[in-house]
Design goal:
alpha+beta; binds zinc ion; Herpes Virus-1; 3 helices; three-stranded antiparallel sheet; 100 residues
Length: 100
């Protein structure tokens, strides 16, 4: 009986740690402040997402970072689960001044 309880507690701690680890490296609140979400327009000069290597298409949601780099919203949001830096210029968004 005791072993089962210890096992359960161990499992719980393991799951909690795992959950904690896949938390975004940058908070949604911060992300909102340092980036904007726009709809893709044909006249935009930046038209490729470097994360998935695909061109933006009409009505794609694009996240524009303060460094003026553009990515698919879904791609960059996934990226931020493992990094808090811009994939292109290595700019640390957590250290970005929010007032620029
Ligand atoms: Zn993409
Ligand atoms: Zn950048």
């Amino acid at each position: 009986m005791c072993i089962i309880v210890v096992g359960l507690i161990g499992y719980y701690v393991f799951v909690t740690c795992k959950k904690y680890r896949i938390r975004k490296k940058i908070s949604n609140r911060k992300l909102k402040k340092v980036s904007t979400i726009i709809k893709y327009k044909l006249q935009m000069d930046k038209n490729t997402c470097v994360i998935c290597q695909e061109d933006f298409s009409k009505r794609d949601k694009i996240r524009v970072l303060q460094c003026d780099h553009h990515f698919h919203k879904k791609c960059i949001d996934k990226w931020f689960e493992s990094s808090c830096r811009c994939p292109l210029c290595n700019n640390n968004l957590n250290k970005q001044d929010e007032n620029i």
